């Protein structure tokens, strides 16, 4: 198929003559950053130091917004974990729907507050970030405070009064579990005290930095199971939210100290249950109806996720049985240690779990990534580390278990975009399945056909199938720019047949874009002629 852009009989540019492959291409992971290298974009941030080389953050802190924005915390010191204060902390991610991953923020001194670490974080569809940070106390003791921020605005620090909402009159004693909804509402977990810098008297899940609303707190009755204890950490900071921000899942502590039945899985403030109606709580029996074995009891692992429809996935290392590591979907055990799934024996414990709104499930088990029970990657899988569209460096460790799944389509097959934190070539890295972006017709290449889809959808389309390359719900000039930048790319493993007439150099593509502007494309007045 040859495409020429015409006006008054003048051929501005011949794009290509391509025949798409009928075969699905293999998925390919791209590396976003790598240990011991400077983060892309870091040198443009205030305070950048040339010694700032990246290491992974060592925990699951990468979060995505529904439109493809994402953020993760990265420490620059290659020898320290995030528990210490050595090195410099960055936020790395994207505020343009995942198109240009870059360093977003570097720890700094803002309004007299000296940041030392970043920890939990969330990002919205507009690219704004809510996060927690440790800051120095110039008049110690204590030497450091926990704090909550929205972009460069300090919301509160340890010892500040809770000024409104159900807990007004108390004082913040910590900050963790930060999350930001797609529309920009902050959520977080804080312990609180009845005096400034006093001992913690409870924990709460807060919503809104304006109203300080409380979704869950110490003393709340959870179904008929009991009340959340008045201890710091009574609500687990590893809280997971659905894409819309309407559903959340976490664990709460119902008994003081360490006991056999203290941990309860909670969804939106109520006990999570199995298909048989049984409550998912540490020490509770797992019935045969729900996939349990004789004598088996729940022992939660802290790995779980939930989607907009309320479907949830979690792992557990149960008591009373030999094959004790299990994976459960909506409360029913679907896989158990030593089963074989897609040719891989599920040995050891589950390392990461995730679910999206389409119903895709992803999990890491035995250093292998599964999506919908199909092996997608494992030790030895090649990752594209030099952005040439070809895998070149093997995965050497997936034990970190960081995983995030999106609703967005990946290039080269019917898979969603997923993010993983793991070792590639022996270096800790953040990788993802390459997003489809401007491949509007899902034929595994970005060519003139995709341009014609964009043209038809310009000004009226709302989906990727209509030309929305950046998933913002609009088909406009920004989508054309993405098509231009990625024109000629094929999905990993994809092939093209037919005769290639001409693949423009970057300067030629710029000429094409200028020509399109001259033709009135930004006013929706482009005329195109299709020659077959």
Overall strand count: 38
Rg from alpha-carbon coordinates: 25 Å
For the sheet with most strands, the description reads:
5 strands, mixed, barrel
- The overall pLDDT, averaged over residues, is 84
Helix content: under 10%
Strand content: 35-45%
Distance between the termini: 5 Å
Q: Report the total helices.
A: 3
Strand order of the largest sheet: 4-33-34-35-36
What is the secondary structure topology, with strand pairs?
Blueprint: E1 2-7, E2 10-17, E3 19-20, E4 29-34, E5 63-64, E6 70-75, E7 89-94, E8 102-106, E9 109-110, E10 113-123, E11 129-136, E12 144-150, E13 153-157, E14 171-172, E15 176-180, E16 186-193, E17 202-207, E18 213-217, E19 240-241, E20 248-253, E21 263-267, E22 270-271, E23 300-306, E24 312-317, E25 325-329, E26 332-336, E27 340-341, E28 344-345, E29 350-355, E30 361-365, E31 368-371, E32 374-378, E33 382-384, E34 393-409, E35 416-424, E36 427-433, H1 448-457, H2 477-486, E37 496-497, H3 506-518, E38 528-531
Parallel strand pairs: 4-33
Antiparallel strand pairs: 1-2, 1-38, 3-37, 4-36, 5-6, 6-7, 7-8, 9-10, 10-11, 11-12, 12-13, 14-16, 15-16, 16-17, 17-18, 19-20, 20-21, 21-22, 23-24, 24-25, 25-26, 27-28, 29-30, 30-31, 31-32, 33-34, 34-35, 35-36
Signal peptide: 1-25
Organism: Bythopirellula polymerisocia
Protein name: PEP-CTERM protein-sorting domain-containing protein
Question: What is the compact description of this entry?
Answer:
The chain has 532 residues and is mainly β.
């Amino acid at each position: 198929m040859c495409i020429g852009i015409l006006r008054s009989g003048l051929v501005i540019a011949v794009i290509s003559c391509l025949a798409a492959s009928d075969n699905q291409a293999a998925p390919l992971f791209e590396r976003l950053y790598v240990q011991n290298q400077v983060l892309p974009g870091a040198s443009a941030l205030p305070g950048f130091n040339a010694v700032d080389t990246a290491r992974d953050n060592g925990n699951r802190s990468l979060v995505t917004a529904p439109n493809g924005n994402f953020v993760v915390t990265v420490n620059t010191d290659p020898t320290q974990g995030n528990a210490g204060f050595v090195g410099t902390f960055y936020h790395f991610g994207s505020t343009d729907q995942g198109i240009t991953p870059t360093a977003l923020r570097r720890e700094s001194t803002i309004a007299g507050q000296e940041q030392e670490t970043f920890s939990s974080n969330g990002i919205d569809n507009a690219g704004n970030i809510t996060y927690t940070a440790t800051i120095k106390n110039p008049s110690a003791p204590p030497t450091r405070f926990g704090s909550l921020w929205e972009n460069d605005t300090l919301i509160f620090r340890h010892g500040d009064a809770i000024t409104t909402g159900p807990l007004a009159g108390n004082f913040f004693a910590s900050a963790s579990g930060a999350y930001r909804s797609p529309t920009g509402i902050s959520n977080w977990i804080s312990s609180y005290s009845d005096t400034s810098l006093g001992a913690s008297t409870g924990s709460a899940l807060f919503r809104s930095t304006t109203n300080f609303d409380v979704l869950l707190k110490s003393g709340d009755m959870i179904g008929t199971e009991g009340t959340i204890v008045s201890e710091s950490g009574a609500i687990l900071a590893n809280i997971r939210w659905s894409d819309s921000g309407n559903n959340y899942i976490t664990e709460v502590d119902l008994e003081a100290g360490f006991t056999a039945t203290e941990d309860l899985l909670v969804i939106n403030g109520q006990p999570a249950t199995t298909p048989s109606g049984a409550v998912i709580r540490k020490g509770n029996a797992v019935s045969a109806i729900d996939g349990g074995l004789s004598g088996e009891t729940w022992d939660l692992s802290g790995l779980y996720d939930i989607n907009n429809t309320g479907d949830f996935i979690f792992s557990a290392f149960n008591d009373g049985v030999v094959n004790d590591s299990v994976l459960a979907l909506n409360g029913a055990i679907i896989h158990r240690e030593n089963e074989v799934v897609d040719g891989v024996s599920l040995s050891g414990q589950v390392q990461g779990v995730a679910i999206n709104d389409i119903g895709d499930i992803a999990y890491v088990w035995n250093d292998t990534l599964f999506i919908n029970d199909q092996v997608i990657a494992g030790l030895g899988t090649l990752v594209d580390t030099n952005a040439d569209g070809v895998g070149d460096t093997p995965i050497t460790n997936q034990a970190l278990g960081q995983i995030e799944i999106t609703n967005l389509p990946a290039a080269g097959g019917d898979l969603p975009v997923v993010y993983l934190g793991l070792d590639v070539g022996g270096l800790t890295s953040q990788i993802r399945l390459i997003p489809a972006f401007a491949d509007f017709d899902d034929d595994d290449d970005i060519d003139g056909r995709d341009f014609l889809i964009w043209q038809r959808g310009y000004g009226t389309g709302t989906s990727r199938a209509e030309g929305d390359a950046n998933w913002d719900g609009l088909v406009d000039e920004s989508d054309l720019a993405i098509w231009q930048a990625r024109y000629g790319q094929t999905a990993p493993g994809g092939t093209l047949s037919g005769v290639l007439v001409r693949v423009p150099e970057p300067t030629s593509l710029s000429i094409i874009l200028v020509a399109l502007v001259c033709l009135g494309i930004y006013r929706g007045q482009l005329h195109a002629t299709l020659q077959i």
